Amino acid sequence: MRWRLWGSVALALLLCVAFLRFCVRFLPADAPSKERERHAPVGPGPLLVPVEGVPPSALTDTFSQSRAAGARRHDAIDILAPRGTAVLAASDGPVEKIFWSEAGGRTLYQRSPDGRLSFYYAHLDGYAPGLREGAMLKRGQRIATVGSTGNADPSAPHLHFAVHVMAKGDPWHGGRAVNPWPLLTAR
């Protein structure tokens, strides 16, 4: 009985260490922003990592992870950052919708200039002053700040970032989800 208990404790500890090693990245608050890497065009988009100071090498692919006790797939990536960190436009294009949702909290939808892609930014703490639907954004422009609105854990502020391929006539919330991770990391 006692060996079984110690085996369970050892397994739990091993799983915690594996989670921290492969799923969590700690960065000091005063880490250099790596301006050149952050603003370098990457991937076919080219998409900019939409959180200021986060280099592509710090991203973790969470696209296929399950959510809601396995009821759905994540279909996005989460980019952890301190609350209030600047959220940047990943690409040029217009703001299509500024919206509050129960799950996403404070959100913003942006279309690519050709209308074929939609970028979804969620769990935002606040919007940039003067931001409005229809405004044309430039890649790297500050649009919001990282937060934990909606169903996000208040102790883990992050940007939920999704990319959808849009068909002609798809509404702002439509499209087919594609993994943003390779578009941000050029992998």
UniProtKB/TrEMBL annotation:
Q: Does the keyword Hydrolase apply?
A: yes
Q: Mention one GO molecular function.
A: metalloendopeptidase activity
Gene Ontology BP, a term: proteolysis
- Record bears the keyword Hydrolase: yes
| Membrane-spanning intervals of the chain | none
Q: So which cofactors does this thing need?
A: Zn(2+)
In this record, what's one Pfam family? Peptidase_M23
Q: Where is the M23ase beta-sheet core domain?
A: 73-174
User: Which keywords does the record carry?
Assistant: Hydrolase, Metal-binding, Metalloprotease, Protease, Zinc
Please identify the protein, giving its name as recorded.
M23 family peptidase
Gene source species: Sphingobium amiense
